Structure formats: C-alpha cells, structure tokens
C-alpha cells in the first residue's frame, strides 16, 4: 500500500515537531523543513519519528525563498512519490513597537508568516491530488486578538485565515481542502522566549485567565491538525478553528 505523505514546515520544534510525531503514529511519512539558522536540532525530530515507527526526511528550508520551498516539495516527490498533506507551520515572532517598526522588520515578518504560507501551499498544490489537505497555523494574536508591540506579527497571522478561505474555494474542484488552525497560548520554544513573547512567567500569569486553567501543549494542536488532514474531516474546508482552552470565549472579569 502506498504510504501517505505529509510535508511540514517548521518541523524541528514546537507544533511542527509534535505534528511529525503524531503523523508517524498514524503511519504517515513526514517531510519536514527546518531553518538552519534556528537553534533547534532537526535530528531530534527525525529520531522521535523513528521511535514512533515512522519515516522522516528532514531538509533545510527557507520559506522566504521560492526556490527553497519548491525544492522541499520536489524532495518529497523524489523520496516518496507524492504529497497528500501540507502544513504551513514555519513562523517568525519578533517584538517591535510601532514607532520602532522599520519597513525591513515589517516585510520580514510578512514574508515568513504570510507569504511563506502561500509559497508552501503553492509548491505542494503542484503535486497534490484528490483527497489532499492543507492546514496553516495562524494565532489568536491577529486571528482573534490584537497584541501590542506585535502589529506586524498580528497582521501576518490575521491574513492566514483569509488565504485559507480563498484557497479552499479555488482548490475544491480538485478535491483539495484548506483550513487554518488558530492556537491560543501554547507552550513552545517560541512562546517561552521572554524577549519576543510571553516567556515562562508571562505564560504562567496568562494561564489564570484560561477557563481550562492551563497553557496548551504542542501535541494538542498537532492532534487537531492531524484531524483536519484526515478523512474524518472530509467535508470541512475553508474554516479557521480556534484551539485555546476557552480563552477567547470567557466572560470578562
């Protein structure tokens, strides 16, 4: 039987890594992209996938370069012969107040967090057929809430659901679905960065406002993404699903 294949960007840590393992448990082969300048070791993902009984190809990726994204898709075809799922998870997070915002900072953020999603889906769509599924990772920052000192990040993440809605309509005649996931406060290397995000103390404080009383885990987001890629969600497309422990629906206190 031909193995199902998932292409994941940002697969060396956080949600991307958790998703690679989640797919491995379901017998899905993983092609994971990682940015070599990041401090995360891609071999850890490869080892975790192997431990879960899966098969994984980790490859260098820069989502700001079309040639790099196209090359990742071509590597998936060369190794496994197909792409069934594409998950645009790679992201950049930097703090920048408006009065300190440069055009370069703004453009860099959108190039990674929004245009990088488009490049990933465009590359995958060339090889994807009936039953294919695309999922992009947005954020409640921009997807639901505003976030001071992060207007460029919020703008990019707000654009992701719009991109997914449009692609859902465009690709539906080919039998390809496209959805967005909007995570709330999830413990990842990115959110634990005190300089650019909340950091451990900020997350602990924020947890008190979450109805379920805790910060989310990367594997919980991965489970939702895996569902959106499965036949169990075969009639679900063009949607943006919030996974936040109830944070965005709580009554203000």
TrEMBL record:
Pfam families: adh_short_C2. GO terms for molecular function: oxidoreductase activity, acting on the CH-OH group of donors, NAD or NADP as acceptor. InterPro entries: KR_dom, NAD(P)-bd_dom_sf, Sc_DH/Rdtase_CS, SDR_fam. Coiled coil: none annotated. Residues 4-203 form the Ketoreductase domain. The keyword Membrane does not apply. SMART domains: PKS_KR. The keyword Ribonucleoprotein does not apply. Keywords: Oxidoreductase. It comes from the Bacteria. Belongs to the short-chain dehydrogenases/reductases (SDR) family. This is Short-chain dehydrogenase. It comes from Pseudomonas graminis. The lineage of its organism: Bacteria, Pseudomonadati, Pseudomonadota, Gammaproteobacteria, Pseudomonadales.
